[in-house]
Each structure stands twice: as C-alpha cells, then as structure tokens.
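re: that chain from earlier
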Amino acid sequence: MKKILVITGGSRGIGAATARLGAASGYTVCINYRQNEAAALAVVEQINHAGGEAIAVAGDVGSEADVLRLFEQVDQTLGPVTALVNNAGILEGQMHVEQMDAARLSRVLATNVIGSFLCAREAIRRMSTHHGGQGGAIVNVSSIASRLGAPNEYVDYAAAKGAIDSFTIGLAKEVAAEGIRVNAVRPGVIYTEIHTSGGEPDRVERVKASVPMQRGGEAEEVARAVLWLLSDDASYSTGTLLDVTGGR
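^ sequence. v structure.
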C-alpha cells in the first residue's frame, strides 16, 4: 500500500525536517503551508531531488474550508492519506495573561487546537477501517510547554498544547479499534524560527542552561521521534506523549 503522509505547517522547522525524513523513509509527502510558498516549494524540491515524491498545498488549518480542500487535493493527486502529522502551530509575542485579548486567544486556539481536530477528522474518515480504510497513524506535535505552563511568556500557547495532549489521549482510545494509532511528541526548546514570532529569536540560547543536557534540540531530533511513532516499530503504542526535551 502506498504510504501517503500529510504534514501541516511543513514548510519550516520541525515540519520540514519531518517531511524530508518521511520521504527518505518511503512516504509520499504532502507539505501543507499557510503563507510561505517559497519555503514549502524549497522542501518539495529537496525531496524530489533526492528521489522522493512530494507536493505542497496551501491552506490555513484553522479554516474548515481550507482543510477540506487540502485533503481533497491529496485524494486527487496522491491518494488517501495513511499518516498525518499535526505540526502547524503558532505563538504570539511574549505577554502576561492579564494583557491578552480575545482576538489573540482565538488565533492561537484556531491554529493549534481546532486545526488539529479538523485535520484528524479528515484523516480518520479516510483511514478508519469502519469507513473501508486500511488504518493509519496520526502524530500530534504538542510541546513541553503543556507541562511547564510557559509563565510570563505564552500561557495561551501552553494551554493550547495541553488541549493537544488531552486530544491525543482521547482520540487514541476512540479510534484504536479502527486501525488508527494516535500519539504525540512534546518537543522542548528547539532551534526553529517559531521563537522569532514570540519576539525573541535567540530564546533557546537564553534558556538552554535549564535543560539537563545543556543544549537546545534540533528539528531533526524531533522528526526522528515523529517518524518512529508513525512506523510499524511503534505498532503497540497509542495514546503516548513522547517528550523530546533533553531531560527538561
């Protein structure tokens, strides 16, 4: 059976690393992106140049219409999805809760939580043995912030990732008998561009001393955990929250 992997937010950071490693592991890859077409196409080119197969599809995962279009395009171009990585995520400027308005909260929750629900829904409709599918695997990208809370910086982001942890556990139990495994990785401080969105591009350098391994992580280190959870090597793992944090 052809292995088809959809990665949301796949144009950079953990998503791009997962796309490259997924292609090297035999997946045909769909890279979803919201705005940065050039970055997404660059990852596609890297994969195709290495002998893999990949496409890029634009869409905001917080938009139900965009999610429907994403999966319909994958159906038409590649075939039914067999693996999903809910990686798309945003954070906003560092801020105390007392300063946050509803618009900010809506943006953060739409991408980080609602998007994961919508994409999982569409994947399940195609993967589930109850719907005639062949089964599959979903990996949600959470964050160690869900356990630490991100005080004084991103409590809203941490709360959204806490929702992803609960979503992972509940959905795993819900679809376990339908041939679908659902797990999550919880990265720690990783060298990616997301820190720039929060207003502190060098945040990893500031906080890495709090990590027992005394360093930040690389996107590829998270990607390897994601690919393991997608693989048959993790065939009896579902509802798992796998920390990739350097011991933090």
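The radius of gyration is 17 Å.
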